[in-house]
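Q: What would this chain look like folded?
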Amino acid sequence: MNTSSSRGTLITPQRKNLPMCQHQPSCPTSDSADRDAARLVAHHPEQGWSLLCNGVLLFEDTGELLPDGQIIAPHRPLVTARAA
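A: My prediction, written as structure tokens:
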């Protein structure tokens, strides 16, 4: 529902941002160390990304984009042993 103020400007109601993770037990938050353990909301392997229920975009190279815009560089494990 839109309303007008006395000045004639359009006022729109605030949109409520509900948390994405509404199941129990709740998934780790986007700022916790185990944020990658959250449930998948959307998975697009053909595009190389997945959306977790805590709002984290997880990329196939293990990079991440957090809901606040922070970028986490890819963190694939280093290969330490080589076959001879």
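Strands lie at 3-4, 10-11, 40-44, 49-52, 57-59, 64-65, 71-72.
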